Amino acid sequence: MIPMTLAEIARLLDAGLHDVPDPGTPVTAPSAVDSREVVPGGLFAATAGANVDGHDFAAAAVAGGAAAVLASRPVGVPALVVKDVQLALGLLARHLLERISPAVIGLTGSVGKTTTKDLLAQVLEPHGPTVATDRSFNNELGLPLTVLRADAATRYLVLEMGAGRKGDLTYLTGLAPPLAGLVLNVGTAHAERMGGGRAAVAEAKGELVEALPADGFALLNADDPYVRGMAGRTRASVLLYGRSPEAVVRAENVRMDGRARPAFELVTPSGRAPVELGLIGEHQVGNALGAAAVATVLGLDAAGIAAGLNSARRRSAGRLEIVERPDGVTVVNDAYNANPESMRAGLRAAKALAGDRRTVAVLGAMGQQADASRARHAEIGRLVADLRFDVLIAVGAGDPLATAEAARSPGQGVAVHTVEDVAGAISLATGLVEPGDVVFVKASSEIGLSACARALAGTNQ
Q: Which NCBIfam families match (predicted)?
């Protein structure tokens, strides 16, 4: 954050100053929307959610060191009062970017955004100060918060951009115009909300490449026809990446080690280099290639990109997070979120990790699947059976029951159990899991199934 006084910010946002003893008080640190994450000298943005109103925590935020509160009404402590806190936060972020000049990278996709963002950040960090989206803060609040962590020294600004509906990426790219735009894939997440089907999702995701300047770069997945078809929607230079022979940045000789970690030869215009990823699952090859494509257009050579990928590790919790218990049980916590594509990728990764070990899947609902939800849950149940998991625990009423029913395929040998809630999953799984098992846990975040993963792993984080 570039230091600015409360008076300067008030003029920029057309905000009223309330209960501010000194308008010259500097704001020197990033902003936060959670009072528990306030950094001394930063702003606390008081937003109103479905269950919690940030204005109720204004005093606690100031007591915790906030220079002031960005609020929609006076709160009894130093505050910048605006009509719309979200819009004001975005305006402040856009103003900051106009004063500094990092290379802004926007990335989107139905699956893999957070992992790819984490990989890209670790590739770029040795080459210059890098700020990247924290966790999955990729929406109209999270993106400005990321931008406001940047300062004059920032060379690379890596912004994960989520799209729940058409127009979201147009808004986000308006706040932070990208030089490079990476599109990973087009899946079924949010498809119904966007108009139905992958074509509608592609229409929304393509807003990222439409926002790129003529001297910018569009990095498109050659292996996804919907993404590849976005090439005609941008003024920017297009670079294809993927496993297809025509991809400019591609993977050759892909193989898996005994721990389900992929290795391959990275091919870029600057040469070739071996990559051995520390993450599990063959789908990580695509994520790594997306990061490599961005790094390529930013001037890194193959050797430097490979070095970053080889040393990269998982940074965000709940995404194929592995915990090894003393009794040999391996818990794979992939319960941060779920859609059909990520569910399939996670199940395959866990099964590959297990080898000939006993496997247990603890699966909850995949949210936001609309009218296709039951059918998609049934598809996951059939995959559980086809992959020959030994045990399935389906968590929750409704659609998870379709998963359970489909997994009861004759001759496949899956022991299928159903429980009503997370507490039931913890109780049943604790009793069923045997030493040496691999346990895969996944559901949409609102289900709270990560609590089951933590309980089985013996962690309290």
A: murF (TIGR01143)
Q: Is 100 helix (H, G, I), strand (E, B) or coil?
A: coil
Structural domain contains residue 198? yes
Q: Which residues sit in the known binding site for ATP?
A: 109-115
CA separation for the pair 38, 455 (Å, rounded): 29
Strand locations in 303-430, DSSP E? 321-324, 330-333, 359-363, 391-395, 415-419
- Residues in CB range of 423: below 8 A, 6 or more apart: none
Cα of first residue to Cα of last residue in the chain, in angstroms, is 29
Sequence ranges of the binding site: 109-115
Residues 185 and 289 in one domain: yes
Which is nearest to 44 in space by CA: 56, 33, 52?
33
Pair (9, 149) in one structural domain: no
pTM: 0.92
Instruction: Provide the Cα torsion 427, 429, 432, 438; round to 10°.
Output: -160
What is the chain's pLDDT, residue by residue, as a tens digit (461 residues)?
899 999 999 999 999 999 999 999 999 999 999 999 999 999 999 998 878 899 999 999 999 999 999 999 999 999 999 999 999 999 999 999 999 999 999 999 999 999 999 999 999 999 999 999 998 899 999 999 999 999 999 999 999 999 888 999 999 999 999 999 999 999 876 666 667 788 999 999 999 999 999 999 999 999 999 999 999 999 999 999 999 999 999 999 999 999 999 999 999 999 999 999 999 999 999 999 999 999 999 999 999 999 999 999 989 888 999 999 999 999 999 999 999 999 999 999 999 999 999 999 999 999 888 888 999 999 999 999 999 999 999 999 999 999 999 999 777 789 999 999 999 999 999 999 999 999 999 999 999 999 999 999 997 54
Does residue 32 lie within any of the structural domains?
Answer: yes
Q: Domain count of the chain?
A: 3
- Please indicate, yes or no, whether residues 330 and 307 belong to a single structural domain of this protein: no
**Is position 93 within any domain?**
no
Indicate if 224 and 117 belong to the same structural domain: yes
Residues 59 and 129 in one domain: no
Contact present, 144 and 157 (Cβ < 8 Å): no
Which residues is 262 bridged to in the sheet?
Answer: 256
Write the CATH number for 50.
3.40.1390.10
Q: Which domain does 401 fall in, by range?
A: 321-457
Of 83, 113, 141, the domain-final residue: 83
